[in-house]
């Protein structure tokens, strides 16, 4: 088996700005987003937290172009935007090896980029491994590599580590934090884990009933430990209890 090439330089991207004005979305008669207004700077990392049904995933789907909306939704400045979504399920194709899963949608000459992405997530040497031969954490690493190999301007993460055990999730937090610093992509993370939100992002939005109730800036350097975010976590927990 030929070893995967080692490439130099990070998988960088240019983050894009997001501008939402009076954005609404509904499923039938049920209103999910209510006149939501939000601005996100290029390269900013934003977490969306709140109880189920508050509109977090709907907002992510709207940004990905998967949910119809009313109002203004502007991503970037008009040029094509490379957007990638990572879900809680890895959604790997079981008949393809790790490298081929990561390379899906890439031009053939860019397969070297797929190999580099696997290297960046710690899976060098597992290029030919099929999904059933990998652990849950390793499969999520492949899914993350697949998203980053496309050098996204906008990275949308929908509870990507929710199904992992605590130790694996902590490893993925450290890995993702490093890779987000390297890539520069604008990132929105949906999570029910307040510690995850505060460790990985620079801004936490609390959504309830389709509205933003809290917009908390996290002015702490990366990487962050649990002790760094305890006070902010307590504040958010109080807000969440008030919404329940």
CATH topology heading of the largest domain: Rossmann fold
Shape: globular
What's the SSE pattern?
Answer: EEEHEEHHHEHEHEEH
Overall pLDDT level: 85
Radius of gyration: 18 Å
Q: Going by CATH, what is the homologous superfamily of the largest domain?
A: P-loop containing nucleotide triphosphate hydrolases
CATH class category name of the largest domain: Alpha Beta
Largest sheet: 6 strands, mixed
Beta-strand residue percentage: 15-25%
Helix content: 25-40%
Poorly predicted regions are: 1-11
The number of distinct helices, counting runs of at least 4 residues, comes to: 7
The domain tally reads: 2
What CATH architecture label of the largest domain applies?
3-Layer(aba) Sandwich
Structural class: alpha/beta
Assembly category: single chain
- The number of strands is 9
**What's the N-to-C terminus distance?**
55 Å
Strand order of the largest sheet: 5-6-7-3-8-9
Give a brief outline of the structure.
The protein is α/β, with parallel strands linked by helices and 244 residues long. It is built from seven helices and nine strands.
